[in-house]
Design goal:
It contains 6 helices and 15 strands. The chain is an alpha+beta fold. The chain has a single domain, classed as 2-Layer Sandwich (HIT family, subunit A), CATH 3.30.428. The strands form 3 sheets. It has a 10-stranded antiparallel sheet with strand order 3-4-7-9-8-13-14-12-11-10, sandwiched between helices. A 3-stranded mixed sheet has the order 1-2-15. A two-stranded antiparallel ribbon has the order 5-6. A hairpin with a 3-residue loop joins strand 10 and strand 11. The longest helix is centred in the last third of the chain and has 22 residues.
Length: 339
Amino acid sequence: MTTGAHLGERVVADVSQLRLNPLTGRWVTVATDRSARPADFAARTAAVESGPTRPCPFCLGNEDATLPATETYGPEGSWLVRVVPNLYPAFSGDDALTVEHLGPVFTQARASGAHEVFVLTPKHEGSWADLDDSHAGLVMAALRDRLEEHARHPNIRYSQAIVNHGREAGASLSHPHGQLLGMPFVPGELAEEIAGFTRFGEACLLCTTIEAEIDAGHRIVEATDRIVVLAPFWSGSPFEMLVLPTQHEPHLAHADPRDLAAAGRALRDVLVRLRRTVGDVAYNVVFHTAPHHQRDTDYHWHIHLVPRITSVAGFEQGTGVLINIVAPELAAQALAATD
């Protein structure tokens, strides 16, 4: 019975394994004896749909249903990508983070910052998987521009970009869109990842991951000279993927424009692979970049793609230990076979 392997070996254990996520320092469980077939996963539930009494605020021609655009991208008189302030922001205002202690366990602060929506396309149907090459690159360029703008505000320490697809992933509207939330603190997930890079030592954790995974070969989903997409060894959920630029750069906003365009295309391509493999399932895309004002850092910007095709139950809630019922080796094999 095998529970470990050299880098080049293809191994799927016949017993559950604990695998350490070096980015967060958390253990995950790969329980391959509970694995399901791709067809066993449920398709996403559509988010709230518009109708005659509720027109979609993100569709072309309904621009008056949102606040005035912060940025628009596209030909004169039209738009392909549109950035608007969120009508119900989680973070707003330019105040510095000021903590108030109201009692022994009551601490609060104003949620200052920024909260924007970037509408991926004027088309109501589809997703990032349906963008063409230039359009996927344009979305990445828009994200870069907004991150650069957030970085000009001294009280925004970190900005989190996300794309939620499907109600199970948190989407409230079906029209393809993402969100960018600028906040006055560095959130715990990022702090854990930064600590992971520090623990790893002098070499970059993700540069090393790219080299090791290319050497191993059996968790690679796609690879070019600029971008590697893999199902990480420590995947905590079925068909989880990492989109990794091969060029080391802490800040997404400072990345080579060619790398940003390549990342947009690679994300599109693997979302197509995901749809062909397990169907139109819900997912979250999470962009991780170094905090705005942090310069001396070994961090490496990257993108998490997390399909929401299994539920988080009591054990995961109580322990923070995820159980993955599809080994990443099998997931990568299925995804790579969809050419």
